[in-house]
Specification:
The protein is about 20% helix and about 35% strand. By secondary structure, the protein is of the alpha+beta class. The strands form 3 sheets. Strands 7, 8, 9, 10, 11, 12, 13, 14, 15 and 16 form a 10-stranded mixed β-sheet that branches. Strands 3, 4, 5, 6, 17, 18, 19, 20 and 21 form a 9-stranded mixed β-sheet that branches. The termini are far apart.
Length: about 350
């Protein structure tokens, strides 16, 4: 009798049927037939588990006491494009957290586009809850440094100097920070709400798709750390920031900071999904105050990050001993098919993690 080749499917079926239920019928050159087969149920296909990871920066957020004058400053003074607002704050892990303790709390948000950056900039103010206002100091752990790249630093500085800003840079204006290597200039300030920001005019050729009609062509958020090794467990090991070893900050930059007596290190880092290089700063030889603000405190910064596999990411954060701020310590269902949770970096910075489902 000729042995016939079985298809893989028939072979699989034969393996699944008890021997006693199989009847092979040989009819000359006819194909062997399988009789009295037991019905086969195909095992369900299990989707691969999504590993929790950061996808890209979403927004830098400033919590302000009065949103209207803050909008005027960043629109008319700094020169950002107002995309929307002020409108009612929704779809926010910050508001959900507040409303757990303050059911009547509400918020307003204004969103700005940053030329040349994938990150938005947002101003948020809350009502129905009292916050404690504070002014940032760039060397305090948990403070964000909003670094804005401009083509003409003198024009940019003149525009914001019309408002109630504080200039921290020694000398009260732009200084050269990288001579004799190049002619980069910068000036460090605090906006009318007390947030740290700086203008930087590069001394190198500019490569950008942003039209020359815009003085601003990029911006990033750099962070002040309390202790680098612990911070890198959070930003590097869990969120996936790629960081270079830090360098000692030179005297010219310390003059820019307005901290000539301090010792500082600064290291480049690349957040996942970002076209911008951020910097991690760490100061010593100067009295520092770790900032751990409440969500509603004017002066608080928040970085909002887009992620996938949020539940898995939250488990990693929890297992590493970092603070989960959201009540219940689990991601909340937001509007528009989103999940969100609020955590805190080891430096005290509030971090919103958002997943689009």
């Amino acid at each position: 009798m000729e042995i016939l080749e079985l298809t893989m499917k028939n072979f699989y079926q034969l393996l699944m049927i008890p021997v006693c239920s199989i009847l092979l019928v040989a009819c000359g050159n006819d194909t062997a037939q399988v009789a009295e087969q037991t019905p086969i149920t195909t095992p369900p296909v299990t989707a691969p588990q999504t590993i929790g990871r950061m996808l890209q920066p979403n927004a830098l957020i400033h919590i302000v006491a009065d949103i209207s004058p803050s909008i005027v400053f960043y629109r008319d003074g700094v020169g950002f494009d107002l995309v929307s607002g002020p409108v009612a704050l929704e779809n926010s892990a910050l508001l959900n957290h507040l409303q757990n303790d303050y059911p009547d709390a509400s918020g307003q948000v204004a969103t700005f586009n940053i030329p040349g950056s994938e990150m938005d900039f947002q101003l948020i103010s809350f009502s129905g809850v009292e916050g404690n206002t504070f002014s940032q100091r760039l060397y305090d752990p948990g403070v964000t440094r909003f670094s804005i790249s401009v083509r003409d630093i003198d024009a940019a500085f003149a525009a914001v100097n019309e408002y109630d800003i504080i200039v921290d840079t020694t000398g009260g204006g732009p200084v050269y920070t990288q001579r004799p290597r190049n002619d980069t200039q910068a000036v460090m300030m605090r906006d009318p709400d007390g947030f740290v920001f700086e203008f930087v005019q590069s001394g190198n050729p500019i490569v950008t798709d942003v039209p020359e009609s815009s003085n601003i062509y990029n911006a990033r958020s750099s962070l002040a750390l309390e202790e680098r090794e612990r911070s890198m467990e959070f930003y590097g090991d869990i969120l996936g920031y790629e960081a270079a070893d830090p360098n000692t900050v030179i005297d010219a930059v310390l003059l820019l900071e307005g901290t000539p007596e301090a010792v500082a290190t600064s290291g480049r880092t690349q957040p996942p999904g970002s076209t911008n290089v951020w910097f991690f700063w760490e100061f010593s030889n100067i009295a520092r105050t770790k900032r751990e603000p409440n969500v509603q405190d004017p002066g608080a910064s928040v970085i909002s990050l887009k992620v996938e596999g949020l539940s898995d990411l939250v488990n990693k954060i929890d297992e590493a001993g970092f603070s989960i701020v959201t009540a219940g310590r689990q991601a909340l269902s937001l509007n528009n098919n989103r999940l969100g949770i609020l955590v805190r970096s080891p430096d005290g910075l509030l971090v919103e993690l958002i997943e689009d489902l």
